[in-house]
Structure formats: structure tokens, C-alpha cells
Specification:
By secondary structure, the chain is α/β, with parallel strands linked by helices. It is built from 13 helices and twelve strands.
Amino acid sequence: MSKIASVETFSTEFISIVRVTTQDGLEGYGQVAPYNADITATILHRQMAPVVLGTDPSDIDALVDRCWVGAHKFPGSYTTRAIAGIDTALWDLKGKRAGKSVAALLGTTKTRQAVYGSSMRRDITPEDEAERLARLQQDKGFAAFKIRIGNNFGNDVDRWPGRTEAIVPSVRKAIGDDCELLCDANSGFTPKRAIEVGRMLEDNGVGHFEEPCPYPELEWTAEVAAALTVPVSQGEQEVDLAQFRRMIRMGAADIVQPDICYVGGISRALRVARMAEEAGLPCTPHAANRSMVSVFTTHLQAALPNAGHFMELSIEPAPWIEGLLASDPFNVVDGQIEVPAGPGWGVEISRDWLEKAERRISSM
């Protein structure tokens, strides 16, 4: 097997694309987690590249574990974000070597994936949110949406007084009872307030209540999950597989939500999905923007036996990803997007974007 000859990053503040090249010239493309991506790229070159250079790229699980163990003194998010860049580039490489899509490597022949329209806005009024989601429902056929309630790490402080209680019924009325409505609190509430809000969500037929309490407080989230019938979803922020095991064991999640680029790539996200499957729980990976993380998630979620009904797809413009991909893989038709069918990820990174980004290389 041709060994890994070089690891490159192409970075902006927001995005860092990873290119792994083997001795025979085959290239695989991945991405670290967005935001402060240039910092993550430094960690990748300092701590991950020395581990993988000169190795056989085919055993991705083993290489990912070697990266994790090698950085065991640095067990936080930047470490797993960097590992995700290596992992996702290796999956692309593996797919190209085999002439198969990553989804096919993962065992699925599914060609389309249902998505929910994910709102990222808390600055929008209930009336305006309801209007734009109803318009998207008509234009794109979305059968599910997610909205933001509370305030990000708000400690029971809403974005403005009464917004949470106003936006949920307003959106429900606008999209109708047959459209699934999901709500994300982004760690906004203490248990008492989360349970109060959760009762209101139950009255409005909400499909899941995401991250109701500060995410490190698993005991708080377990308390909320035990008190409500609306499913509680959790896991976006977690980077340690042991923490996912605790979360599942203590009943702090009815729906498990690893983020591929936060948790350390496809290989580690698959392990989380299997933990959830063994516990009889669905897995709906988090994917909050239309960078490569949503491409990765399309392939993974299409292949999961315990996948949630819908994949997350942001409805927000993101100027920092403009020009990243040569064509748009996220065209929504009848509430679905295509699962890319080409080898590897089945998408092309724009050469113009790569040429404008800051390039670094580590090589044998």
C-alpha cells in the first residue's frame, strides 16, 4: 500500500481544508471543524501530521486512535477538531482508491437524504421566523424545521423577555401540524426552567428539545429528560467517547447528536452512533453549516441504521464558505438533498479557493 507522503492545510479563520497525498499521488480531502480553523491547522501539523506521515492510510480507525493517544495530554476540542481533518481526508482517499462514495463504503445505496431546515437565528422576531419558514416549506418542500429558543448559555435569560413562549406557537401555526418542529436551547436553561419550557414544547407537538441545559451538566439534562415526554437531544459539543457513554448510561439523551468535525471524524462518530444503537436510541449528527461538515454528514447519516428521520441543514447564508465547493451539493427538492455518488465525498473543492487560502505542508 502506498504510504502517506504529505499532509497539507489550506486555511482561513473559518475554514481549513486538509489534503492528504500518498506516495503514488492519490489525494484525499477533508476538513477540520469550522471557526478558528487556522488555529486547529497549527495543531494538526504539530501533533497529528507526525503520527500519520509514512503510514498505511487504509486502517483509518487505527490512525485516528494513534492521533488521540499521541495527544492524550491535550484531550480537548482542538485536538479532536484536528483529528477530524485527518480522518475525513483519509475517508475521501479510501473512497477514491476503491472507486466508491463514502456512503457506499459505509454500506448504503441510499441516493437521497431528508433534511430539516435549521434556523440559526435568535435575533429574528417570532412573526418573521414563522413567515420565512412557511415560505421555505412551500418553496423547498421541507417537512421539518428547527428553531432557536432561550439564549446561548443564557442561564434562564431569554434573548428578549417572552420570545421563547411566543416563537414556538407562532411557527407551529405557520408550518402546520404535519410539519415536524424541533427546538434548540443551546445550553440555555437550568432544569426547573427547562422543564417549564419543555411542557410548552409538548403542548405544541415539538419533536425534540435540544441541549436544554449547559452541556457539561449531564445530571441536569438527565433530570429534564426524565421529566418530559418530548425527546431530549444532546451531544453536539462532546469530544470524548467516554462522555457519550456516560450521557447514554445516565439517560441524558433520547437522541444522540455527535458532530463529525467536533468529535474527531467519521470513525469516532460511527462509534458514538453504535453506542446509541446498542441503547436503542436514534443518532442524528449535528451539522450546523454548509461547509464540508454537511457533506460528511450526508454520507454518514444516509448509512446509519439508527439515523434520525431528518438530517440537519442550515438555512442561513454563510459568506465565509462562498466559493469553497465547485458546485452546490445542498439543493433541496421536496425536502431532500442528494447523497453525492462520486468517489470519496463526491464533491470538488474549488481550486480558486485553495489558491487564496493560507497553505502549510508537512511531508516525509
